[in-house]
Amino acid sequence: MVTTSPYARAGSFARSAMGRRGSNVRPYDAAFVAALETRLQNGEHLALYGPRGSGKSAVLAELESRLVRAHVPCGLSAVTSTLDDVTRALARAYPAVDTLDVTRRTARYRLRTAADQRAGVLLLDHLDCVSNAMVSFLRRLHGGLVGALSAVDVDDQRERQEMKPWRFGALSVRMPLTSARRLRRLLDARRESLNLPALEPEEQQRLLAAARGRPGWIVQCTELARDGRYWSGRKLFLTVLCTDTEVAVRYGALDLVRPAAPRH
Questions:
Q1: pTM of the prediction?
Q2: Own/partner pairs, 198-205, CB within 8 angstroms, 24+ separation
Q3: What is the residue-level pLDDT of the chain in tens, covering all 264 positions?
Q4: Which residue, 17, 168, 2, is CA-closest to 80?
Q5: Are 44 and 171 within 8 A, CB to CB?
Q6: Contacts 24+ apart (CB under 8 A), 153-162
Q7: What dihedral do alpha carbons 26, 31, 37, 40 form, nearest 10°?
Q8: CB of 127 within 8 A of CB of 151?
Q9: How many whole angstroms separate alpha carbon 216 and alpha carbon 94?
Q10: CATH topology for the 6-174 domain
């Protein structure tokens, strides 16, 4: 009998705003994703690092979609801070494993056993803390049991040095920045799908320069631009919009840049 695990119930697929609202522009290079998929199916453990908003979450979502279509056991964790987050992702990859009403250690043992019988892939997004317990568990998944890709936000050299992916046996892979041409297509598609006013060439260039190769920045910028506070007629307050977008992307502080919902 298949028992639904509380780990499997928790969470859902990561959703990227990059593909919503009629925008079909891929913010990543398909060949890059295909190469990652091959390495993961070979059982490698990788750490994908890059600045916030550079498209790492979109890459993980695309990998999940590809692996599911290929019938490869795959589990994604949208935010990864604890060993329980890793366990939940593994439970999503092997939903038939009964982890109900057992200890966490027993659940992890059963999941490792399932992976030993049929290799799978773990996708760990926004990895921001690597405990000794997590390191030990990830190392036990080496040897062809489970391929793992951890997405790590790195905006400066300090964060780069703190990442230390070798602790859990992962090889570093840099997230390539998106070309200006692809960013421009994404900006145009998002503006049209959100019914935003047309941008002057100078405004478009300033937004693309501020994005610095980060498609997630463009997505967040166009979301904020739906707010009338950033417009005077059809004129965009570029400096304010760019500053608020950077705050929202880097710190996830949307409450700092969006007004509170009106009370009724």
A1: 0.84
A2: 198/234, 199/236, 203/236, 203/238
A3: 334 444 443 333 234 445 444 456 777 889 999 999 999 999 999 999 999 999 999 999 999 999 999 999 999 999 999 999 999 999 999 999 999 899 999 999 999 999 999 999 999 999 987 888 998 999 899 877 899 999 999 988 777 777 676 677 789 999 999 999 999 999 999 999 999 999 999 999 999 999 999 999 999 999 999 999 999 988 999 999 999 999 999 887 555 455 544 444
A4: 168
A5: yes
A6: 153/49, 153/50, 153/51, 153/52, 153/56, 153/126, 153/128, 154/49, 154/50, 154/51, 155/51, 155/52, 155/250, 160/49
A7: -120
A8: yes
A9: 31
A10: Rossmann fold (3.40.50)
Neighbouring residues of 150: CB distance < 8 A, sequence distance ≥ 6? 45, 46, 47, 48, 80, 124, 127, 165, 168, 170
Please, where are the H alpha helices in the chain?
Answer: 6-9, 30-41, 56-69, 83-93, 104-117, 132-140, 157-163, 180-193, 201-211, 215-224, 238-251, 254-257
The answer to whether residues 258 and 225 touch, using CB atoms and an 8 Å cutoff, is no
Quick check: helix, strand or coil at residue 11? coil
- For the record, the structure tokens of 108 come out as 């992890």
Reference 222, options 200, 195, 202; nearest CA is 195
DSSP 80: B
Residue 32 has which token pair?
A: 């890059």
Query: Within its chain, how far is the Cα of 74 from the centroid?
Result: 15
For residue 175, give the DSSP letter: P
Q: d(Cα 256, Cα 27) in Å, to the nearest integer? A: 26
Query: CB atoms < 10 A from the CB of 230, how many?
Result: 19
Q: In the numeric block, which tokens belong to residue 263?
A: 């009370």
Q: Are 158 and 55 in contact, with CB atoms under 8 Å apart?
A: no
How many residues can be counted in the chain? 264
Tell me whether strands 120-124 and 74-77 are parallel, antiparallel or unpaired.
Answer: parallel
